[in-house]
Please model this.
Amino acid sequence: MILIKGGTVVLGQTVSQQDLLIQGEHVADLGALTGNKADLVIDASGLLVLPGAIDTHVHFNDVFMNTISVHDYYTGTLAAAHGGVTSIIDFSNQIPGESLTATIKNKKGEAEGKALVDWGIHPVITQPTPEILEEIPLIVKEGAPTIKCYMTYRSEELMVEDKDLKLILECLRKAGGMLMVHAEDNDIIEENISRVIKSGQTKPIYHAKSRPPEAENKAIRRCIQLVRETGGRLFIVHMASDDAIALVSKARAEGLDVFAETCTHYLLFTEKILERDDGLKWICSPPLRDRRIQEKLWTGLKDGRISMVSSDDAAYSWEAKLYGTESFDKCPNGIPGVEPRLNLLYSEGVVKGRFSLPRLVELVSTTPALLFGLTPQKGSLLPGSDADIVLFDPKVKWRMNQQTLHMATDWSAYDIEVSGKIEKVFSRGELIIDGGRCLAQKGRGQYLHRKLDLSIQASI
Ligand SMILES: [Zn+2]
Model:
């Protein structure tokens, strides 16, 4: 048994000084406790005690735009652990001609002997054949009830047409699953890209110019309409448009089960940074937006119209990002970010008064657990839940950059002074990060067999 003594525990909306007892893999007790029976007592005075963060949006071993992500299940979960992330859910693209069962099997193979923290899978449908649709109930039963589709990236052979999205939504509704969409209108984007490139506008900023918020809004309007027709459940990934916030909250007011997240980089950067000489670093889709939209995203997180924040970790090497040197459209879209999310949201969100500490915990842990079928195992420090715990020192200030982060890329999008630092991380009762050192054994991470709670509705 481990007793974490005197820390400031965040439990729901309550922030209070409490002791926390870990027994085996679980939280056993909370309150004013004595260390009599504990094998180890950790003095947590002055530290925040938070549930481990959950990142439901990472791309490990992702093959995309002529490259592959440098985060595999070892390097990716190592960076996650350092960032206080004790559960990740990774996307698994259907390989053309192969089944969804095969993609899950492949991912289990990739994780075997490597994962340091717990991990789950979202299968990605790229070819919605009748056989694939028939597989959906099976996949839901396999513990992967959240399936993603792309409404763009036709040239990468990832795009799914609306008529197929509708069929997938219907199958998922019947099976108790949820559709996740990358919502950007492919026609708008393709037309813009070819126009700007023809006129010689090939610098990174034109990536953003060719994917305006209207492209997002149009796609989101279309998929909300599909939910209206099917009664299915929809999750919009990496939302980065203020009009889209209004579309989602209007859909929820109608009683539709439509949820949305945004990602760390939309909150930290604006499109202006794409004008720098190293602007390729910040090419991601949807692109970074202007300051006005960024402020709206912060507000949407505070007032609940945006449910959560993920990282959209897509870690491509600098060599691969340089494919975009001649023209932005060759640069693999993505920013490595599985590690810094919790710390950045504390520093830029809580410290700067944009939202409260309990809201931070909801955004990175409790709500991801609720929406993605991990409650009550994950996302809270209530007795009985997994002892996934972060001890966070709010007083430390440090510089977050390529040297101080642990992600596997040879570059970093982040070079910023931050407040607060992760001191210790426990995963299922095991101390895996201690003062910046990783103690976890490769392969200790477990597959997260998830089941959605369909009673969770638009109230989140
Ligand atoms: Zn993504």
Notes: Residues 213-230 form the longest helix (18 residues). Residues 57, 59, 312, 314 surround zinc ion (CB under 6 Å). The mean pLDDT is 96. DSSP finds 13 helices and 20 strands in the chain.
